[in-house]
Specification:
By secondary structure, the chain is of the alpha/beta class. The protein has helices spanning 23-37, 65-76, 97-105, 121-126, 144-158, 176-187, 216-220, 244-251, 255-258, 281-284, 291-309, and strands spanning 2-3, 6-7, 54-59, 80-85, 111-116, 132-138, 165-169, 191-195, 210-213, 225-228, 266-268. It is built from eleven helices and eleven strands. The structure holds phosphoric acid mono(formamide)ester (CP). Phosphoric acid mono(formamide)ester is lined by residues 63-66, 137, 146, 270-272.
Length: 318
């Protein structure tokens, strides 16, 4: 994105959530990611944009997609990338988050990418470190890079997002993906619907820009995008639904349910999936599924975020 004053710069030191971003920031990330995507198709998948920078990936919760995707993005930008698996760190000896991070900061990293089980942990980090902080998922609060890669995938498949109807369905209450996506899609002009059992719809979610549906069929009616969420059994108390079979019958995305959406509707899921619970296997693996495109696009989007937070402009020339 160019302005009268030249290439646009990203006016943020950290990426803590979609909440802090304006539509122009999100557009700049999309445009930058678009120019980075081609790098992953090259024989030598590397550019020198972050040469000399050190990035620490500090994950207090399990991750396959986000951690790997950040590491690949960092390596494709030529950054020095260090992974800390909390399960094999001094955290298991009782070291606090503050002491862990102060210890890491003594090693002069430029960026810390953090996933943590507590909402607000990355925000706390910004008060004690000089490095840029990227939120890779904090409790049930936000997962901004997931929403950005989801938006990138929607634009790639549908050419635009403004005016599209996006249905987000399932365990809304425990989903940081849902929160970040609602904020992101509403800012970019989509009509956002959320659907799920009443026990999994948090009070006041409408204020974030979504309309609530309690019947999945109605929520899917003429939707352009159906985004399913993982049933987060690790975060919820018992008793929010009767049985997994009942959940699948009412809230699982099946071929029957997908018929309510537009004929060219795409199906998304942030992963990991509970096949046969929130999504039927033939839909997850079917022609309308863009789930693996989401994974692929995560690299370009995370490259864009790392690059912009390091002071890069929207122009990639090498
Ligand atoms: N979508 C997502 O955050 O997946 P991981 O938990 O594997 O990182």
């Amino acid at each position: 994105m160019k302005t009268d004053k030249g290439p646009a710069t990203f006016g943020h030191k950290h990426l803590l959530g979609i909440e802090q971003l304006a539509a122009e920031d999100i557009t700049l990330i999309m445009e930058t990611a678009d120019s980075f995507k081609e790098i992953s198709t090259r024989t030598i998948k590397k550019v020198p944009a972050l040469r000399g920078k050190t990035v620490i990936n500090l994950f207090y919760e399990p991750s396959t997609r986000t951690r790997t995707s950040f590491e690949i993005a960092e390596k494709r930008l030529s950054a020095d990338s260090i992974n800390i698996a909390v399960s094999t760190s001094a955290v298991v000896k009782g070291e606090s988050l503050k002491d862990t991070v102060k210890t890491l900061m003594a090693m002069q990293p430029d960026i810390i990418v953090m996933r943590h089980q507590n909402g607000g942990a990355p925000h706390f980090l910004t008060q004690i470190v000089d490095a840029s902080v990227i939120n890779a998922g904090d409790g049930i609060h936000e997962h901004p890079t997931q929403a950005l890669l989801d938006l990138f995938t929607i634009i790639e498949k549908k050419q635009a997002v403004k005016g599209l109807v996006v249905t987000i369905a399932g365990d809304i209450a425990h989903s940081r993906v849902a929160r970040s996506n609602i904020l992101c899609l509403a800012k970019m002009g989509a009509t956002v619907r959320v659907a799920g059992p009443p026990t999994m719809i948090p009070a006041g979610i409408q204020k974030m820009g979504a309309r609530v549906f309690h019947r999945f069929e109605e929520a899917c009616q003429d939707a352009d995008v159906v985004m399913m969420l993982r049933l987060q059994t690790e975060r919820q108390a018992e008793g929010l639904f009767s049985t997994l079979r009942e959940y699948n019958r009412l809230w699982g995305l099946s071929a029957r349910m997908l018929r309510y959406a537009k004929k060219d509707a795409i199906v998304m899921h942030p992963g990991p999936m509970n096949r046969g619970v929130e999504i039927d296997p033939e839909i997850a693996d079917g022609s309308r599924s863009v789930i693996l495109d989401q994974v692929e696009n995560g690299i370009a989007v995370r490259m864009a975020v790392l690059y912009l937070l390091s002071g890069g402009t929207g122009d990639i020339t090498e």
